[in-house]
Task: inverse folding
């Protein structure tokens, strides 16, 4: 099996598995317990918090561990609203956000909030000008992702933050789920108030994510109870998951630059090879330098996307059309539609996302499989 | 180290660790992906859902996996409210609920909901009469736990559900976090609409819980996004955590009756032995038959609780005063206060909770340690 769906989830790294197994075996206390077993668990959570805060260049106490990226995004969007009610009820999100942001914004619309969805250009980029035009006096929150999960486009978050600061008092959240381990995530440089990460996209476990919350950011918990995570997220900490997140983030950051070069080269080769075999395959997303290095996305005209993916799967290649969350859905992707791709092209969108384990040989074989399956589908359609 | 704080958290069972390690190693796909790697992950989630639904005697689709018990309780309390707004905005909870219910109810009070907290008797029991008196036409939700986490009192949930059905259209949620693996949890017999469980109290991992939601119960997600868990909880499923929850629940249920007898005997012995050594130690909670078998809770007059716990910890005994979530807090427990225990007694409350690994020798030694440390504290105080 060739696995080129690392944007959906990644294999857990052996070092991370070992650290988690160790935590699962020896450190079973509740981190809130004050006895020895509890303190041992607390120490693991603290260490992971230190690891992640080093990667993000923030203070440890600015990290809130959650049950995953989606929960972190819900916390980012929902958490500040009550305290900011005096300032307004207007939110701005980009039209290409992950469902955890878009659907949450839509849910908030049903509860009396007004939401502006910023359009993007054909590369999937949000323009600072469109954000400037959308900002209002009553805008309380802006959420634009650092890198898109369907085409890998890297948004100009620093510029968008600057525009937000110039024109409003709104908070700025960015979804860095796909960016972690691929781009530098220095929250000082980015200037964001909140930033979401997830473990299972970087060789860590599912069920662990975190929200960076800049000191002083108004925030109420979404999950209330025992008051863990400094009252920002209640519930017994997922100690092995948090251990896995901290270590995976540290390792991914350490290898970030070399992996970006390696994966960038492999993705380029994959794209080139597929276009040799399928000359009308149309690259989607942004050009080199404005997209994540591990993304290779293509629209293939005249094909039914689901059918192609099924054939690739049968041939041993795990690929996707876009977000895993929308798998099986026949509707064209909201991201591709926002980018102005005709629905006919969007239907046959192919997302190949490389990861730590991806080899040159796999990339060659994957291109062959894609070329062969596309050709066979076209022959079948022509008969 | 003798670990008698199994109500706070439990060691992960070896079988569960192995199943999780297997899931962490081999099954890394996103359950929402339609390719082979995704389907393999989906199969693990499905199997765990089957296992848990067998334990609860419900349909698999009535199980919603969450990131833990607290999140499940938030979903139970918050999830139905929007759809029931036409019926009313009144909630009833018992005064001895876990913080995840109590604090959530209090948070809802700040958002325009009215909450009645039902008092309890000296055993910690909620009376059906007090619930009957509190139910109103605009009551939309009742939440009373199946078994209390600080003293182990088992609430008369079946009767409370019957009263609720007679007098209102309110939904009934019960927190079965401590009850799972100790009491039969047949949701048909209990009659509840929603029921919360958590993995790490029964030899499963932290970071995995579930809410039973009876078919037809109005519910909106608290964590929105990709629409996982049939739109009731978004976010990539914590596959290894869910695997651990399903297996731990199945194993706990299989051993439930024999363990209840074994632990009941050990707890009785522990209680008796401590009372021999500390004759004025005062058992708290309900009498035998109305409390969880693995609970031994005592109030010890004239002592400072935190000081005693620190000494026990230093002597190698992990114990607690009550909820782990409130560890380190100097305030008397809300549960003991609701039971009418004088604050002076509440301050020196000792919760010893037994688990699968607890042996007879440990119980003997724990009693010795408690007796010795109490005597030394008292001698020191007398000097």
Result:
């Amino acid at each position: 099996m060739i696995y080129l769906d690392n944007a959906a989830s990644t294999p857990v790294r052996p070092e991370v598995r070992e650290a988690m197994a160790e935590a699962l075996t020896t450190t079973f206390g509740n981190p809130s317990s004050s006895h020895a077993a509890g303190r041992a668990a607390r120490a693991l959570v603290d260490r992971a918090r230190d690891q992640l805060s080093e990667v993000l260049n923030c203070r440890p106490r600015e990290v809130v561990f959650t049950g995953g990226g989606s929960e972190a995004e819900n916390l980012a969007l929902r958490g500040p609203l009550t305290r900011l009610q005096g300032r307004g009820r207007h939110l701005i999100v980009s039209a290409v956000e992950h469902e955890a942001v878009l659907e949450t914004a839509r849910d908030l619309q049903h509860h009396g909030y007004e939401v502006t969805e910023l359009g993007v250009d054909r590369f999937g980029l949000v323009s600072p000008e469109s954000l400037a035009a959308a900002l209002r006096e009553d805008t309380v929150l802006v959420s634009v992702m650092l890198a898109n999960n369907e085409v890998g486009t890297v948004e100009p978050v620093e510029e968008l933050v600057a525009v937000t600061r110039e024109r409003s008092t709104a908070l700025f959240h960015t979804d860095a789920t796909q960016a972690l381990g691929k781009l530098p995530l220095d929250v000082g440089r980015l200037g964001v108030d909140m930033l979401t990460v997830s473990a299972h996209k970087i060789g860590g476990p599912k069920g662990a994510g975190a929200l960076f919350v800049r000191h002083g950011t108004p925030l109420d918990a979404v999950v209330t109870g025992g008051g863990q995570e400094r009252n920002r997220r209640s519930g017994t900490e997922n100690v092995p998951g948090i251990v896995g997140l901290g270590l995976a983030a540290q390792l991914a950051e350490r290898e970030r630059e070399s992996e970006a070069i390696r994966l960038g080269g492999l993705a380029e080769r994959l794209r080139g090879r597929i276009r040799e075999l399928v000359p009308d395959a149309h690259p989607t997303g942004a050009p080199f330098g404005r997209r994540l290095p591990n993304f290779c996305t293509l629209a293939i005209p005249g094909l039914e996307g689901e059918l192609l993916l099924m054939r690739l799967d049968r041939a041993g290649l795990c690929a996707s059309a876009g977000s895993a969350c929308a798998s099986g859905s026949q509707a064209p992707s909201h991201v591709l539609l926002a980018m102005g791709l005709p629905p006919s092209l969007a239907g046959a969108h192919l997302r190949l996302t490389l990861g730590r384990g991806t080899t040159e040989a796999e990339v060659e074989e994957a291109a062959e499989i894609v070329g062969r399956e596309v050709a066979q589908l076209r022959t079948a359609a022509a008969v």
